Amino acid sequence: MNKQNLEDIDTQDYPHLNRGLEGITAFTTSKSSIDGQKGELIYAGYNIDTLAEHASFEEVAFLLWYDRLPTSDELDQLKNQLAAERALPRPVKEYIRSTSREAEPMAVLRTATSMLSDYAPEGSGDGEQDNLNRAIAMTAKMPAVIAAFARVRNGKEMIDPIDRGSTAYNFLYMLNGEEPGEQAVKTMDLCLILHAEHGMNASTFTCRTICSTQSDIYSAAAGAIGALKGPLHGGANTAVMNMLLELDKQGDEADPVSFIKDKLEKKEKIMGFGHRVYKTFDPRAVHLRKMSKALSEETGYTKLYEWSEAILETMKSEKNIDPNVDFFSATVYYSIGIKPDLYTCIFAMSRVTGWTAHFLEQAANNRLIRPRALYTGEKNLEWTPVEDR
Ligand code: CMC
Known about the structure:
There is one protein chain. This protein is mainly alpha-helical. It has 2 domains: 32-231 and 351-364, Orthogonal Bundle (Citrate Synthase, domain 1), CATH 1.10.580.10; 236-335, CATH 1.10.230.10. 55% of the residues lie in helices and 3% in strands. The chain contains 16 helices and 3 strands. The protein has a 3-stranded antiparallel β-sheet. The longest helix is centred in the middle third of the chain and has 26 residues, at 127-152. It is globular, with a radius of gyration of 22 Å. The chain starts with 31 loop residues before the first strand and ends in a 25-residue tail after the last helix. The chain binds carboxymethyl coenzyme *A. Carboxymethyl coenzyme *A binds next to helix 15. Carboxymethyl coenzyme *A (CMC) binds at residues 20, 201, 232-234, 236, 269-276, 319, 321, 324-326.
């Protein structure tokens, strides 16, 4: 690969070269606002702290789609629509049954979401309403996909959803095959609220980019799942848990402080820390930290929470870097008995509301997303016949 130095390249045509698009504002949005200095996150006018205290995930989904809170009737209607849409089409169940048990859950979710486009709710001819119905259908079905694969890969039967209870309730019910406890449902609901929307992150940008070509909402969601899967984005929550379990393997010798220092010395990234926008504590991590502490005290298994606090202190003193949403969500999910490789799927089943809200917003005021790349190769080389190379 021939690489030229940036200094040698005439950048006149490219005055805005920003690696990773850092600091670039490419859209207007009414879906969320992040103040990275203050550590503030707002969904369509409401501070995340207010929503964490008062809202349900279904209210948040409505808020993101409509930019306002639902009335009581509208909320009931949304809940009924979600309940009516939860069951999976037979071919999607067959796919989940027949795919490799070793498959990554996020890959299965991506493929199943793509398949769901063949079974989309019937169209009415009103593009916006149809996309909203598809958004609701995906939000309803993604938990069923995740729970079904989680069971099938362990040789268990899939459990059909029930027509009552929330998204959080149904997910835990379908996952574990028993009625979940109130505390577990509350925890899951809060996690879904906290993960629903977050501005122009990589997966939402992917979703809007796909929308901007006038492709369909299922393609956009499948693409977004692909982007979320990576460990620099949503995949970090699974990576955090794997890191804690790696430490746990050291048994009595385990020391979180030297473990982290050692990784930093080797220039490794510590998963669940750092953020492109937040230069302080991620406001979502504040809630997840409280949850993680409460759950560890409730279960009496406090070791992982204590290690997390020690890691947090070490990262602050060594690098002055704060945790992001993925750090404490790992121990929260672990405490309610969820397998680590499902954590990113839970992120996706919540974030699908934010993705689809952005899809609707992009479609309503579309312009093709098409940035430039600064060419660093050579130009006008002489052709060499293959036998002479
Ligand atoms: N551990 C160690 N050093 C870090 C970390 C970390 N987690 N995050 C940033 N740094 C250092 C990095 O090494 C660099 O140092 P230097 O300037 O000395 O080379 C500096 O901070 C800037 O880092 P960057 O990677 O250039 O920053 P970025 O804005 O491109 O990346 C990030 C942001 C989230 C990708 C990065 O912080 C990271 O890789 N974190 C770990 C993965 C993670 O937790 N991802 C979840 C992100 S939040 C939720 C989500 O979107 O899913």
